[in-house]
Amino acid sequence: MWTLLPRMRQIAACSPASSAFRNAMKLLVDTDAFCKLGVAGLLQDALEALGVRVDECGRLPALTPMLRRGRLAKVYGAKSCERLSRLATTMSAIPESPGEWLDRLTPIVDVDPGEALLFAAAAPGAQTVVTGDKRALRALKDVPGFDAAMGGRIVVLEALLIQLCDRLGVEEVRNRVQPLMETDKTTLVCFSAAETDPRGALDSYFRALISEVHPLTLWKPPERGAP
After folding, report:
1. Among 43, 85, 92, 91, which residue's Cα sits nearest to residue 68?
2. 148 dihedral zone (left: phi>0; alpha: psi -120 to 50; beta)
C-alpha cells in the first residue's frame, strides 16, 4: 500500500479538482499568517495590496478545525477565532494530495506538515504563498530546485507589513496590530510605543531574513512611491 502512495498523489495532482484549484487560486495563506493578519484586521488590506480577492485564496484544510478548538482559541481568544473561522470558510481548502513536491518536503524535520502541503500545492503552479514560518524557510532554502519553483512568490509577514505601512500609514498599522503585541515578538519590537520608526524596524528584520534564507528569493514590497 505504501509503495503506491507517490503514484496516488500524482494521479490526485492531475485530477479535475486539483487542476481547478490551481487554475482558480492565486494566493495560498498559512495558518500563522492568516491568524495574525485576521486578528489585526489587516487580512483584507493585505489581499488588496497583493492584488487578489478572498475567493482567489487557498488555506490549509486544518485551519477551520483549529480555530474551533485547540491552541488557537487559547492564543487569540474564542471570539476572535469564531470571527476568523467564518472568514476562513470563504477560502478554498488546499487539496490534500498536490503531487510530487509533497514527497520531497514532508520528510524535512523543520517543515511541518501544513507548510509542506502549502508549498507542495504552490510549487507546480503560479500561486504566491504568504507564510509566517521562518523555520520552514530556513530549511527550504537547501532543497534542490525549490527556489527555481517558488523564488519571488514567498511573502513573509515583515515584507507585507512594510507594504501595509506604506499604503495605510504607520500609525494605522500600529493601531491595528495592538492585539498581537502579547503573542508576537516581532510585532512587539517593531510597533512598541518606544519605537519611532516601525517601518525601519520591519525592514531591518526583513533584510536579516533575506540573508538567512539565501539563496531562496523572497517577495519584496514595492519601493515607496511606486504604484
Report:
1. 85
2. alpha
The cell numbers describing 57, all together, are 485564496
CA proximity to 167, closest of 105, 88, 221:
221
pLDDT in tens, 114-155: 999 999 999 998 999 999 999 999 999 999 999 999 999 999
Domain covering 2-157, topology: Rossmann fold (3.40.50)
Could you give the CA distance from residue 194 to residue 212 in angstroms, rounded to a whole number? 27
CA distance 204 to 190: 10
User: Domain residue spans in the chain?
Assistant: 2-157
Contacts of 138 (CB under 8 A, 6+ apart): 110, 212, 213
Which residue from 16, 113, 11, 99 is spatially nearest to 61, judged by alpha carbons?
113
CB 92 within 8 A of CB 57: yes
pLDDT tens digits, one per residue of 55-112: 999 999 999 999 988 789 989 999 999 999 999 999 999 987 657 899 999 999 999 9
